[in-house]
Structure formats: structure tokens, C-alpha cells
Amino acid sequence: MSTDGKTRRTGLPSNGAKPGGPATDAFQRPLRDLRISVTDRCNFRCTYCMPKEVFGRDYEFLARDEILSFEEIARLARIFVALGVEKVRLTGGEPTVRRDLPKLIEMLAGIEGLKDLTLTTNGSRLKQMARPLRDAGLKRVTVSLDSLDDAVFRRMNDADFPVSRVLQGIEAARAAGFAPIKINTVVKRGVNDHTIAGVARHFRGTGYIVRFIEFMDVGNSNGWRLDDVVPAAEIVAMISREFPLEPAAPQYRGEVARRWRYKDGAGEIGVIASVSQPFCGDCTRARLSADGRLYTCLFGVVGHDLRKLLRDGRTDAQIEAFLRRVWSVRKDRYSELRSSRTPGLPRVEMSYIGG
Ligand code: SAM
Ligand code: SF4
Ligand code: SF4
After folding, report:
1. What's the 49 CA to ligand 1 centre distance in angstroms?
2. What is the best residue among 216, 253, 285 to mutate for testing ligand 3's pocket, by most ligand atoms within 8 Å of CB?
3. Residues contacting 57, CB < 8 A, separation 6+
4. Atom of ligand 1 nearest to the CA of 215
5. How far is 226 from 229, CA to CA, in rounded Å?
6. Are 125 and 101 in contact (CB under 8 A)?
7. Which residue of 31, 39, 304, 314 has the lowest C-beta tally within 10 Å?
8. For 221-225, which contacts have Cβ atoms below 8 Å and span 24 or more sequence positions?
9. For residue 269, is it within any domain?
10. pLDDT tens over the chain, length 355 residues
11. Strands 285-288 and 33-37
């Protein structure tokens, strides 16, 4: 057996996956979801993601020619779909700051076999862009909004961006026909935890689904400490005190958010407990950075350079074989192994790899 997980004689991945079929990793996890970061830039400076002290005026973002073109992204997406990917999520950085984004959506929406095409955004540009994105074929949208308290929200986005404009963006998305719209709320102790019941209150009964996210130790710049994490159980208890909740069954295997239903029938929330209740066992996600590096885990350190393969003139079949091999030896389960030693380890930033 060679060290790259293939048997020398057969060339098959050591997990027994057959060439041509869906790709599975060393723990038999299929490759189902692809998150594509379309830019490493953002118009916000959320303190937990792109703190100004690190992402200041002098920060060197990727140059234009380093970033994958729309044609390159679409080509890779097509190959990923051939390997079993059913869902593509565009992210960043802030994906809506990438010029002509609807054009990319249109290209991706045309890929046969792709079942779901979605986007995560800070909502700042949705008021103008919701309609063109929808018309281009985007199926769903998730909007990040950490608080409805304007002062708290402005402090967290650190770009003095008001809540009202994100709410206008969400409304524009609804009017454009996106449904259900999900809202992502990262919870950080002592920063916005006192306002999360307010977020629940605002969106319950509206059909929007809020997902509360434990503050994660992604990247090396956000000063993560375990003490800043409000565990999922505490988040649920805080909301349940005001609006009683009961657990709801997962909708599909690998669902990242645990679902909770309001007992009075006013809808549901989700809680993403990547720190207190890791879900690596069902992790079917690959991530593509804006400059074309493939990461098989959010906490990856080294990305596989797909841009080089594209620009060196490799064929689709060669790239597919490469991806299959990378996935077949994947053993990532960082969150399950997280320990007191892990926060200091080197890893890529979330704004680069895509949330
Ligand atoms: N700019 C877009 C946005 O904010 O929605 C897309 C990219 S952002 C990196 C994707 C998601 O990651 C957002 O919902 C954001 O709140 C979340 N996120 C960023 N840093 C995080 C952290 N340290 N812990 C948990 N979630 C984080
Ligand atoms: Fe930008 Fe999104 Fe990161 Fe906030 S979470 S800094 S909006 S990429
Ligand atoms: Fe997936 Fe890595 Fe997150 Fe585990 S830590 S759920 S393997 S991305």
C-alpha cells in the first residue's frame, strides 16, 4: 500500500471507491457539498472574522489574476458535480462584492445534476442584487445578521453598517421569491448573547429560519477563546425561556444545524454547535478558495492547488482523477479532535476559505 491511500497494483483508492462513481473519503463520507469562495474581500470587518487590526489598509488581498475566473469556477464545479456534489454554496469574503456575480450564478445554474445553488451574504447589497441573483437562477440565500440591536450590530460588523439596511436586503430577497430564507447569527459571549432572544423574537412566525452559530476558532486572527463560546445548550435555554422550544428531527443526514421548534407553532430555529457538539462524522463538504485551492476541512492548513491544474492545461478527466484521489484519503475531523492545544495551530482564515 502506498502512503497516498492507493494500492499500487490497482490504482484504486484504499477506501474501495470505484473510479467513475461518487467519491467517498477514508471514513466513507461522500463528497456532497462544495463551498466556493468567490472573493477574499469584504465590505465588513466583523470582529470575529476579519478584525481591522489584521485586515487593515495594508492587508494584501488576492490580485485579480490570482482569483479564479468565472469560466474556471464553472469548469471545476462541473467536475465536482460529476464526483457527487449536489449542492454549491457561494461565499467569501462577501460574494456580492465580486463584479458580475449574477453571470457566475447563471453559469452554475446551468450545470446538469446540480440540485441546489445557494449563497451566503452579509446582506449589505441584497437590496439591489436580490432580483438579478434570483433571475440568474440562484435558488436560495442565507443572510448573516448577528443582532437587531443597531449599536451591537455596528460594533460587530465594525463598518458602521446599520441593521435597517440588512433588513431591507432580507425583505428584497423575500420579494424576489427566495424561500425559505435562512439567517445566520454568530453568538459571542459578552458581545451579542444578550440580544439573541431579540433575533428569535423578530423572526419567529415569519417563515425565516434563524440559525445560531457557536463562535468558532477559525483562522488565527480572531482571538478565539473557549470562554467566548456560548454553547448550543445555553443558546437554546436562553431562547426557550422566552419562547419554549422542543427538538425537531433532522431533515437529512449530515444536516449541520440541530433543529428546534417553537412549541406554539411559530416556526423553528437551528443551532450550529460546531464547538460543543461537533458533526465531523457526517461532514460532506469541500471548500474552494477564491484562488482555487481545495480544502477538505474548514480547519485545513494546506490547500490543493487546482488553479495550477487548470492553467497548466490538464483535462477534465485528469482533474477529476486528482480530486477523487484527494477525497479518497480524507480523514479530517478537526472539531472532534479540538483540544486546548488547537487554537494556536496555524490555519487559513475563514474570509479566504469561505464560511
Ligand atoms: N460575508 C458573508 C457573510 O458574512 O455571510 C459570507 C462569508 S462568512 C465567512 C460566512 C459565515 O461565516 C457567516 O455567517 C459568518 O457569520 C460566519 N463566521 C465567520 N467567522 C466565524 C466564526 N469565527 N465563528 C462562527 N461563524 C463565523
Ligand atoms: Fe465579511 Fe462575512 Fe467575514 Fe463579516 S463574516 S467579515 S461579512 S466575510
Ligand atoms: Fe467538516 Fe472539518 Fe468542520 Fe469536521 S471540522 S465538520 S471535518 S469542516
Report:
1. 7
2. 285
3. none
4. 24
5. 5
6. no
7. 314
8. 221/50, 221/51, 221/53, 221/54, 221/55, 221/349, 222/47, 222/48, 222/49, 222/51, 223/51, 224/48, 224/343, 225/343
9. yes
10. 333 333 333 333 444 445 578 999 999 999 999 999 999 999 999 999 999 999 999 999 999 999 999 999 999 999 999 999 999 999 999 999 999 999 999 999 999 999 999 999 999 999 999 999 999 999 999 999 999 999 999 999 999 999 999 999 999 999 999 999 999 999 999 999 999 999 999 999 999 999 999 999 877 777 788 899 999 999 999 999 999 999 999 888 778 899 999 999 999 999 999 888 888 999 999 999 999 999 999 888 889 999 999 999 999 999 999 999 999 999 998 888 875 455 555 566 777 766 6
11. parallel
Tell me which residue range forms the domain holding 152: 33-353
Q: What is the pLDDT of residue 352?
A: 75
| Residue 59 confidence (pLDDT) | 97
Q: Ligand 2 centroid to 227 CA: how many Å?
A: 22
Q: Is 29 helix (H, G, I), strand (E, B) or coil?
A: coil
For residue 91, which ligand has an atom nearest its CA? 1
Cβ density class 162-180: b for 16+ within 10 Å, e for less = ebeebbbbbebbbebebee
C-alpha cell at 104: 457566475
CA 281 to chain centre: 17
Return the number of other C-beta atoms located less than 10 Å from residue 344's C-beta: 8
Q: For residue 5, tell me if it sits in a domain.
A: no
**Residue 1 in domain:** no
Specify which residues 118 forms β-bridges with.
89, 140
Please give the tally of structural domains in the chain.
1
Give the CA count within 13 Å in the CB-facing half-sphere of 296. Answer: 20
24 located within any domain = no
The length of the chain is: 355
d(CA 19, CA 5): 14
CATH number of the domain bearing residue 239: 3.20.20.70
Contact by Cβ (8 Å): 88, 95: no
CA–centroid distance, 97 to ligand 2, in Å, is 12
pTM beyond cutoff 0.90? yes
Cell numbers for 74: 464553472
Whole-number pLDDT of residue 190: 96
209 forms bridges with which residues in the sheet?
Answer: 182
List the residue whose alpha carbon is closest to atom 2 of ligand 3: 297
